[in-house]
Structure formats: C-alpha cells, structure tokens
Design goal:
Blueprint: H1 2-20, E1 75-80, E2 94-100, E3 105-110, E4 116-122, E5 125-130, E6 138-143, E7 148-151, E8 157-160, E9 167-173, E10 181-182, H2 183-188, H3 196-203, H4 207-214
Helix pairs in contact: 3-4
Length: about 220
C-alpha cells in the first residue's frame, strides 16, 4: 500500500514538473533584460547587468498607430514582444495590435508557444479556432466592441472583419515570444517548396491547382 502511494506521489510530481516546464520559464530575479551585445545562445536571451538597466528597457510606443492593411489579407499585426521590449525577457507575456480593413482577414494561423486572449476595441469580428485531430471541431463567435475570446495554445485560429468599417483588436499572449505560423504561407510558401506531389495528395487536388496556389506565395 505504501509503495502504491509512493508511485502515485512520484507520478504527480513528474506531472507537475512537466507542466511547469511546458511554457516560458518563471522569473528567478526581478527581471532579466535582454543583453543584445551577448553572443550567448540559450532558450531565451541572456541578461544584461542590472546596473545597466534603464526605464526604456520596459517601454514601447506605437500601439496608437493603425497598421497598414493595404495588402491581400486586409489586416496588419503590430507585435509587442521581447523583440520590441527587452524587459519582457523571461516575463512570459506579450501583446499585439491587429488592424482589419473592411472584410479584412487575419488568416488561419497558430502560436506554437502561447495562448491568446483577444479583445475587440473597434468594430466587429467573426473569430474561431479548430481543435486537434481527430475531431477538428470548429468553435466560432461573432465579437463586438468590448468582447473577449480565447484561442488555446497551438490551435489553428483566425479573425475576419465581416463589416464595412475598420476593426481593431488587442491580443495578449502567454509567451514573451509566442511565434506565429500562418498555415497557407507555411504549406504553400515554404523555402524550398514542398513538392506538388505531396501537396496534391494531402489536399486531394490536382498538381495544377497546387501550382496555382503556390504561385500566390
């Protein structure tokens, strides 16, 4: 009986340790501002000396400016992650402003290292995400100004401005560097290209269709 209890405790401890390391690491000091002069390569960034840290290391200005949505998708993302704010290093959070032209789309994509919580600031959005295999269930919602929606980490999601006016949203992410993989770009615009034999079979279309899509990227 005691041995079973020990095994259960060990299993719970292992699970706890796994969960604790499954996202950005926790702080072990007040802050760890990125040292951009260091040549060290770690999972994250090395810290610069605390005596050299200044207020500007925790500051970013520009989210009041609308992004340029004159592109094929009609959307623009202004990221505020560790690349913009050195003081975000090891903090486990980041931010993004997303602008949408009328009928603009933030196309299906994933954040491999972060959950996203989206707040609509202006306009209305049709949003959704798809669960993993085998169900691939689609969850969707129409969001108006002030509404909030969550996209789980690593799942394909999108936002679409179905209205005739511009829309703006603010996304918070649970990583200093959540990453983004736009599905269409990754599949049809990789370098070098995935062969059309593979894509034709994967999408159950002919090679001419694959070539036509790849040409867009």
């Amino acid at each position: 009986m005691a041995f079973r209890a020990f095994l259960l405790a060990a299993a719970l401890l292992a699970l706890t340790c796994f969960n604790a390391t499954a996202s950005d690491p926790s702080l072990l000091q007040d802050f760890c501002v990125v040292d951009k002069t260091s040549k060290a390569r770690v999972n994250g960034f090395p810290c610069k000396e605390a005596k050299n840290v200044v207020a500007e290391d925790f500051f970013f200005s520009g989210l009041h400016l609308a992004g340029n949505t004159t592109n094929k998708q009609g959307s623009a993302v202004t990221a505020v992650n560790v690349a913009q704010i050195a003081g975000l290093n090891t903090m486990g959070i980041s931010l993004a402003r997303i602008d949408y032209a009328p009928y603009g789309l933030n196309p299906p994509h994933i954040h491999p290292r972060g959950t996203e919580i989206l707040t609509v600031l202006e306009g209305s959005l049709y949003v959704g995400f798809v669960t993993s295999n085998p169900d691939n269930k689609l969850f969707t919602k129409v969001l108006d100004k002030g509404d909030v929606f969550v996209f789980p980490e690593g799942l394909i999601h999108f936002q679409f401005n179905y209205g005739t006016k511009n829309a703006v949203a603010l996304g918070g992410l649970s990583s200093q560097n959540p990453g983004v993989i736009t599905v269409a770009n990754a599949v049809f615009g990789s370098t070098p290209s995935i062969t059309d034999d593979i894509l034709a079979k994967a999408f159950q279309v002919d090679k001419v269709t694959v070539d036509r899509i790849q040409a867009q990227f």
